[in-house]
Design brief:
alpha+beta; two-stranded antiparallel ribbon; about 35% helix; about 15% strand
Length: about 70
């Protein structure tokens, strides 16, 4: 079964999807699994990625930042 969700909520997409894609001008211009899609990107990423991405590369969710601060990752 597949489910297509269209959202502007980056945190939701990062936390609950298996694949993410960016549509621009009617075309998919980027597509990958959430960590590869959101990591290292300053234009489309999550708040956690913007805030902690330079200190904890690869984090994209608040839970990952918390785990990183607690030493769980």
């Amino acid at each position: 079964m597949a489910l297509l969700i269209v959202t502007h909520d980056m945190e939701f997409a990062a936390s609950y999807t298996h694949r993410c894609a960016l549509l621009f001008d009617g075309q998919v211009i980027s597509e990958d699994e959430p960590h590869a899609f959101f990591s290292g990107n300053r234009f489309y990423t999550t708040a956690a990625g913007l805030i902690a991405g330079e200190v904890m590369p690869g984090v994209i969710t608040c839970e990952e930042v918390i785990d990183g601060c607690l030493g769980s990752t």
